[in-house]
Amino acid sequence: MSMGMHTIDTRDGGANARVQMTLPSSLRGTSAPVRQFATAQAAGPVLDVRHVEKVYGSRNNVTRALADVSFSVMRGEFVGIMGASGSGKSTLLNCVSTIDAVTSGSVSINGVDVTGMKPAKLTRFRREQLGFIFQDSNLLDTLTARENIALPLTISRVPARETLVRVEAVASRLAITEVLDKYPYQMSGGQQQRVAAARALVTNPAVIMADEPTGALDSKNARLLLECLETMNRTYQATVLMVTHDSFAASYTNRVLFIRDGRIFTELRRGGTPRQEFFNSIMEVVAMMGGEGSDAL
Q1: pTM score, whole prediction
Q2: Which of 61, 158, 172, 184 could bridge to 139 as Cys pair (CB 3.0-4.6 Å)?
Q3: Please, is 197 exposed, middle or buried when counting C-beta atoms within 10 Å of its C-beta (0-12, 13-18, 19+)?
């Protein structure tokens, strides 16, 4: 593979339908296509990761989970992070989402460097600026779907009337209005995950972090959740960063970063490519990396 920009043109996607594969150098700001993409975004990156390293263990037994990782995410992007088990993708998400501290480097969200924040300020920043969707929905069993979605607004002391309006609006957009008065045990796994997605979106966060959100779902509910995330991204211009090992899930994103041995191996940009074509391109990279496969479309 050449060091630079490799473009895979689709046969039936039109002149603008192509997938761009950018090797790691471009992720550190040296590639013209990446710089042009950034320039086109007036607001600049909502997430900027610079030379992040994460090391575990002592001097005699060191594990380098992340090594010089750099990339940016623009406002309104839906970005996937893929890699085999142990590649560092979940560690990267934990560091980016402020759940774990980096060993070196910086993570900026909405222009704020979060790597040096004090714990109390960081907790507030995380609550106000980030939304989370996990493999387990993490809904509170004693609250209805409506109350679960409203919880972050209640904690932030948003007025009750405004909370009600915002919950109803996001529930309508994500097609979960019929379960608002149900408790988690009365919902399917897919419905629970869509409620969790609504809870992540209702605060209008800078970035929504999704960690293997389809991992515990069957194929039907996985597709429904991915369509839900796609709606959040397109309708609300929500910025989503999703870790997944599944090429099918990754095919719903706009861009995929591939992690291997704690480093960014390459990336794919969807552009105007049909999802089937993008899925095929993702599978090609997965095969090239010798990593884990995925369910077919």
Answers
A1: 0.81
A2: 184
A3: buried
Q: Name the residue among 69, 55, 57, 59 with its Cα closest to residue 101.
A: 55
Q: Dump the DSSP string for 121-177.
A: HHHHHHHHHEEEE-SS----TTS-HHHHHHHHHHHTT--HHHHHHHHHHHHHHTT-G
Report the DSSP beta bridge partners of residue 62.
57
Residue-wise DSSP of 58-88: ETTEEEEEEEEEEEEEETT-EEEEE--TTSS
How many Å apart are CA 100 and CA 102, to the nearest integer? 7
Contact 132, 199 (CB under 8 A): no
Would you say 241 and 49 are in contact if contact means Cβ atoms under 8 Å apart?
Answer: no
Please count the CA atoms within 13 angstroms of the CA of 104 that sit on its side-chain side. Answer: 6
pLDDT above 90 as % of the chain? 61
pLDDT at 236: 84
Residue 240: CB partners within 8 Å, gap ≥ 6? 77, 78, 79, 207, 208, 210, 229, 232, 233, 253
What is the average per-residue pLDDT within 206-211?
Answer: 94
DSSP state of 17: -
Q: Give the pairing of strands 78-82 and 240-243.
A: parallel
245 SS3 class: coil
Q: Categorize the per-residue pLDDT at 296 as very low, low, confident or very high, splitting at 50, 70 and 90.
A: very low
Q: Would you say 113 and 190 are in contact if contact means Cβ atoms under 8 Å apart?
A: no
Instruction: Give tens-digit pLDDT for 52-111.
Output: 999 998 778 888 899 999 999 999 999 999 998 888 999 999 999 998 999 999 999 999
The answer to whether 265 touches 89, Cβ cutoff 8 Å, is no
